[in-house]
Amino acid sequence: MRTVAVSVVLIALSAIAVLTGLLPVSDVVHLWGRVWPILLFVTAITVVAELAAAAGVFTALARQVARGGRGRAWLLWLLVVAVAAISTVFLSLDTTAVLLTPVVVVLARQVGLNPLPFALTTVWMANTGSLLLPISNLTNLLAQQAMGDLPPAQFVALMWAAALVAMVLPMAVVFLLSRRSLLARYEPAARGRSSDPVLFWTTVAVLIVLIPLLVSGIPVWMPSTAAALVLAVAFLARQRTAVRLGLVPWRLLLFAAALFLFVAALQSAGLGAVLGRIAGQGESPLALLRLSLTGMLSANAVDNLPAYLALEPVAGSPVRLAALLIGVNVGPLITPWASLATLLWHQRLTAMDAGIRWRRYILLGAVVAPVTVVASTLALALTA
């Protein structure tokens, strides 16, 4: 409800800006032209992920991971890291933070391990692992547009080194912090079966077809929408109750739309000029660090989405946009509100009685985020 209330306030303020002429209607129309494909993709991929979870795909994946760990907690954890990375890269950070987190918590409890290292892995990987592909994060899709609809292969060529550093460093910290529990042994969980094999294998087939299409260069809203429709039809035929309006992330969509409008209004009021002086110019390593750290601080002050939108005009070139993405994607590890995925992750943990105290989360993030942002930005500067 807090998200809805904040969204309503932001929309009201944006409406006042439009009515007073501060935010021209033409700017709103232009903004809508940019964001509707992105919002449609977010809706479709969320529906796909929710139905995949209902079909038991993530649970089956967890069982496979548990067996693959061969009784060694460190190997099990590395497999969870790999699954979280793949989930983030190909299905977006929200899928990892929201849907994979309950799976890994249940997995850890089933084999008698401390669930917190696994839960911390999912939320950190969800944020820091979201640099590699345009579909990995909403900010990436916006940046891809600003780069002139850069093809996915070229986006990867620009981001791969920074993405690799951003994924490895936080995971190394998780291992060091939890090395005692991760060096233990466990008994693999018993095998299980899907309640509806037809739905399970239909969903697996849809995902196998969908993932390559998401990186093919086709506008991502097209294959994701088609996949959501196919799965919805399959579930209507075999498990009708799973298809409900609640599958659509209404609060997330409202919040994103409100942020888009509000930041556009702030830009019209002169925010861009102020941020331009703070973020600086140029593509030297120091200039890129200045921009990425500005993005990190802005994301933790408000949220990564408005931080990106506010700083996008002062980025300019693909390399500077990449540095900005490092700041707003990798940087939101400190405050709870820096990333909506983090808030949703914490809600899932609390519901499962496996919550982590925000004080501890903030202290850990305050150490990990700046180091990772700096290292990833330097990797970008060396390879761009």
Outline the structure in words.
This protein has helices at 2-19, 25-54, 57-68, 73-91, 93-110, 116-128, 138-146, 152-177, 179-182, 197-214, 221-238, 250-268, 271-279, 285-301, 304-315, 318-330, 340-351, 358-383. With 384 residues, it is mostly helical. It has one domain (2-270). α2 (25-54) packs across α7 (138-146) and α14 (285-301) packs antiparallel against α15 (304-315). The longest helix has 30 residues, at 25-54. The N and C termini lie far apart (43 Å).
Keywords:
384 residues; single chain; mainly alpha
Task: Summarize the SSE layout with pairings.
Layout: H1 2-19, H2 25-54, H3 57-68, H4 73-91, H5 93-110, H6 116-128, H7 138-146, H8 152-177, H9 179-182, H10 197-214, H11 221-238, H12 250-268, H13 271-279, H14 285-301, H15 304-315, H16 318-330, H17 340-351, H18 358-383
Helix pairs in contact: 1-12, 2-7, 2-11, 2-12, 3-4, 3-5, 4-5, 4-6, 5-6, 5-17, 6-8, 6-17, 7-15, 7-16, 8-16, 8-18, 10-11, 12-15, 13-15, 14-15, 14-16, 14-18, 15-16, 16-18
Rounded to the nearest angstrom, the distance between the terminal CA atoms is 43 Å
Radius of gyration: 21 Å
Q: Count up the domains.
A: 1
What's the number of extended β-strand segments? 0
Shape: globular
Give the uncertain stretches in residue-range form. none
Secondary-structure element sequence?
Answer: HHHHHHHHHHHHHHHHHH
Q: So how many helices?
A: 18
As a percent range, the share of helical residues equals over 70%
Average pLDDT works out at 87
For the biggest sheet, the summary is: none
Please report which band the strand proportion falls in: under 5%, 5-15%, 15-25%, 25-35%, 35-45% or over 45%: under 5%
SS-based structural class? mainly alpha
